[in-house]
Amino acid sequence: MLRGICILPHEYGGTPPRIAVFTDEAGIKIAKEAKIEIIGTKELSDSILGGGPIEFDWCIATHGGMNMLRPLGRILGPKGLIPTEKLQNLVTVDKLKATIEIARKYLVDFKYLLTLL
């Protein structure tokens, strides 16, 4: 499996991804200013653990918000929604606004399954 992200130089014309932000108290204000509809809270993680729908395509987290994502690892992991620094969606609070802007307009996530004959 080959997986990665590509940051395009211009906006792409596709539908913008639904972004969820899991953060601590310092990042909630930044996420609300960036008009994020899905902010990771204890209620959201309990809903997902209970079998509720996953209503986001891309998940961004700060280091303080990873505590809410730990119980969701078995659910979000196979779907590729766990934030990692390698995919540039696990960031510090000061880089949160820029990461949301890039993810909303310029980011393309790709997965490719390699087969050998």
Describe this structure in words.
The structure is a single chain. This protein is of the alpha/beta class and 117 residues long. The chain has one domain: 3-Layer(aba) Sandwich (Rossmann fold). It contains five helices and six strands, in the order E-E-H-E-H-E-H-H-E-H-E. It has helices spanning 25-33, 42-49, 66-69, 73-76, 96-105, and strands spanning 2-7, 19-22, 38-40, 58-62, 90-91, 107-112. The strands form two sheets. It has a four-stranded parallel beta sheet with strand order 3-2-4-5. Strands 1-6 form a two-stranded antiparallel sheet. Strand 2 (19-22), helix 1 and strand 3 (38-40) form a beta-alpha-beta unit.
DSSP summary: helix tally: 5
CATH class: Alpha Beta
Major sheet summary line: 4 strands, parallel
Mean pLDDT: 83
| Percent in strands | 15-25%
Strand order of the largest sheet: 3-2-4-5
**Structural class from helices and strands?**
alpha/beta
Low-pLDDT stretches are none
- Using the alpha-carbon principal axes, give the shape: globular
Distance between the termini: 15 Å
Radius of gyration: 14 Å
Order of helices and strands: EEHEHEHHEHE
Q: CATH homologous superfamily, by name?
A: Ribosomal protein L1/L10, domain II
Number of E-type strands: 6
Tell me the count of domains. 1
CATH topology category name: Rossmann fold
